[in-house]
Amino acid sequence: MKTEKIFDVEGMTCASCSMAITKTLEKKDGVTSVNVNLATNRATVVFDMDKVGTETITGWIDALGYKAVLPTMDKTLKFNVQGMTCASCALALEKTVSKLDGVKKVTINLATDTMDVIYDMKTVSVEAIKNATKTIGYPSSVSHQDARETSNETETLKTATRKMTMSAIFAGTIMVLMVIHMFLWNIPLYTVITGVLAAPVVLWFGRDVHVHAFKSLKAKVPNMDVLVSLGSLPPFLIGWLALWFPMTTFIEMSATIMTFHLIGKYLETKAKGKASDAIRKLTALEAKTAHLEKDGIITNVPVQTLDVGDVVIIKPGEKIPADGVIILGSASIDESISTGESMPVFKTEGDEVIGATINTDGSLKVRILHVREDTFLAHVIRLVEACQGSKVPVQAFADKVTGIFVPAIMVLTGLTFLSFLLFNDFHVRILSWMAQFLPWINPDLDPLALAFVTATAVLVIACPCALGLGTPTALMVGSGIGAEHGILIRNGEAVQMAKDIKVIAFDKTGTLTEGKPKMTDIIAFDDDEKRLLAYAEALERHSGHPIAKAILDEAERISVTKLEATDFLDLPGKGIKASIDSSEFLLGNARLMDEYEVKIDHQMEAIKAMQNDAKTVIMIAMDKKLIGLMALRDTIKNGAADAISALEAMGIETIMITGDNDETARAIAREAGISSVISNVLPEGKKDVIDQLKAEKGIVGMVGDGINDAPALTSADVGFALGSGTDIAIDSADITLVSTNPMALVVAIRLSKATFRKIKENFFWAWIYNAIAIPFAMMGLLHPMIGAAAMSLSSLNVIYNSLRLRKQHFSIGKETSHA
What we know:
Distance between the termini: 65 Å
Structural class: alpha+beta
Strand order of the largest sheet: 18-30-29-28-19-26-27
Radius of gyration: 34 Å
Largest sheet: 7 strands, mixed
Helix content: 40-55%
């Protein structure tokens, strides 16, 4: 049976590549026709399914040195999920949705009540995903980016507030009546009155708890709601038996347990809202309106209606509505929202500006370059959300424990109940002695009541929520702080790895230096320096390299004669080969001269002298004869030496990797304070250097510009991309530093360490709480009502511990972070 499939092919660079694939596949038995499109990097193959499969075809293409995959209709959607109360809920949801055909990946963020799903649009629908979550008791809806301050979140807080308030009123009344009944006056029909007052608390305000508990049990993934439901509903129902049998009533306990749970949920919802403030703050930074100029007429329009190419007017004190380029005027722009640096940056015609930054003075006319989801701010928000939804490797063990936590607690509850029934005398002796220290212990209860109270305490004291909230809340706060300072953390793994970095490798140009070298020396051996510069200008005219720009700027400054170069050949890491007026020219470094056998020995003294002064020497040869030298010097960035000093003080070794010669590289390294230098490295060789450092040194970080250094950044354990907000789309780095100040790197590492420290603290408190509280409850030393309150406080402790990150000071400046 013949079929047609389209394959995405990676690695094709020219027509020869497409031809090689075409010829190879056409020779294969079962292949009818092949059409390889170099422009789209796709191959359309018609083949006989009875003779050959898609995996065989991809294997043939892969064997040629390319990478072929079948394109998918994968899409990523964020869902708002209602009803999640603990890590067990999240685990149940993840398991259920992951089982759907077409679902590739599910990431649950318990702290924000959201679920990110990567799915194949051809295989599974959004409705199917929503139905799957609803079936197990967690209704969901698609989260729209424009509605982050969502009515869903607001409504959730309102509902939690209402339930807490009403439950507290009823439960508070019950507690007052209990005190009166016990110490002041025997209230007639006390059980009936308290039962009626407790009914709304347990059955109405707590109904969602029971519904979720039932559905989770039905799905065989019991969660926290099961523990609370078992701790409140049976005591309420059994308490009514006191109307007919002489026994202890548990109605007060049931209402109090549910109320403490609802109070905890309210405080948790409010605290999680504080932890997720970063997204709301970022969204609030957006300008709401813009002054659109069209056909000479200026009108106020909503920012959402702007399109690429529109021209807007920005008055002093106003926010820039979207990313763009200044076409008229100049002003100082407050870019603190993107870089974390408070000093305004002067911008003029031709400079790019970032949406949501503030024009502090001057009037600007700006042409829009990016709108809506393509803006810098939207990109920042996506990165922050991605980090907040990611997992830290250390959480893997906690996830495994969480998966068995609730079933284990249910087993321990049963064993506790049986133990107090079967060995009542043993337990009563212990409780009688402890009663002199713990006033809530009542060893005089009958065996059944004592067993019931103790088992209930075990149920309600256990708290898997804290385990589930430990990582996401810390990541939410940490990534939010980072975004405010121009530090964009892509994932939780980077947070964990950054704390253990042993070595940081730096690219030189544009990372440690300004990346804007200036011409310092021109040496023409025929004494015609202007002619030498004219040759260099012709050779570098179409290059975008910083060295080329310096040469072009100098040529323009002294108005050289324009020459034309032909047969242009770019040799990365070496230089340029081209022809001018029938002569062959070479412009580049010593490696290029050596490759084409150009003798430079007689000028080595002059070359070395310039290199030792941190100058980059450019050599020019005509017809394999050296005709001149040019020297350029780049300047160290402000903050580079401070950053290197701070890193060395932290015990991190610093290394510079550069394509420059050794003398120039070491001169720059001395100025910056770099420990080691690896020079003469071609762009493609940086990755190999990083791999070697990882093998020799351990955890390695790499700092680069995110473009030329992409392979090295990807290969490093933690990649740091340094770049301005206008070129923020850097996909190869784990952490993006929007500020070009190298001190941002130091702040990023300190923030990562502080965030991971909070994650470890959260796990510690969650573990220690359960490790102490559960055995304490199993011994009968804890009243269920106290246990319910402690359970709620455990989750809150984890959240507020994460929020304490905000009290630490992070700023991009010398030794200003106290993390």
